[in-house]
Amino acid sequence: MSKSGKQRRAEIKHKRLERARRLQETLAKPSHGRHLPVGGIEPADRSLLARHNNTFGVLPEFYADVVFVCRDCGEEEVWTAKQQKWWHEVALGPIGSTAVRCLPCRRARRAAHDRPGANLVGERCARLRALGTREPDAEAWREVEAALADKWWGVRTVAIATLGAWGDAQAVGRLRRMIADHAEGRRWGSWDQEARRAAFKALGECLPASESDWGLAQYLDHGDTWALRRPLSRLPTTHWEPVLAAEWRRNETPRLERLCWLLAGVAADAAQRQRWRERFARHPDPGVRRMAGYAWETAR
């Protein structure tokens, strides 16, 4: 008796679940070493991940099929290695994120949100993103300012990103004022912290060369300014030798660690990059030496 399509799909799903479980058990054994299974594995582009993730943890060398439970229907599903690679390297999802819903539940959720008026916050955020694609006028500025005072944090952060998309002198000045306004209350999980992060991220997309001195001072002084690495790393290589000499005399470990991470991304010639790396690797502070090894290894 032939099996129905539903039965065949159930068998295929069961086999995928079992294969993913066996794979995770194999990877959990310390003896597997470099002898990775053939199926369910995809290599990771660590250099790409390092550019889009602010983490001091070890970035993965590969992705592996993993089992998860859908938060809506409670069914077990497999988040495949190929899906993970697309999510982290194409969609640029955070490296610490994971799948939470199966495909049918994701489709149902999208269909529910697609009805007009069903997702007013999402519609407002979409309007703000659309504003960022064209030159701002007085009406656009009024809408962004209203969004910055909205009760929903998500609306505020999208409005901040819109300022970064505009990137003109007025928008850059507004972002700088926002950073100054939220400088005092940087308690973990507070809006002050989130606002600063969002503003620095927006400036990372539009910081002009005329603001590079301010940006570098912010980057070296504070730990929530990682997004400024991208515009700062585009400064000419001649800019960095005086900065390095001044910071070496100052000799403050957190600032040297941040400078080390920044210089690892500067497009200098191979000889200069090697000199910088060796200089940090010989520093007496172990934290600076560890940062040197990690930053340049990740930037390769």
Automatic annotation (TrEMBL):
InterPro entries the record matches: ARM-like, ARM-type_fold, Zn-bnd_dom_prob
Lineage: superkingdom: Bacteria
Annotated Probable zinc-binding domain residues: 65-112
Pfam families associated with the record: zf_Tbcl (PF13451)
Protein name as it appears in the record: Probable zinc-binding domain-containing protein
Native source species: Lysobacter hankyongensis
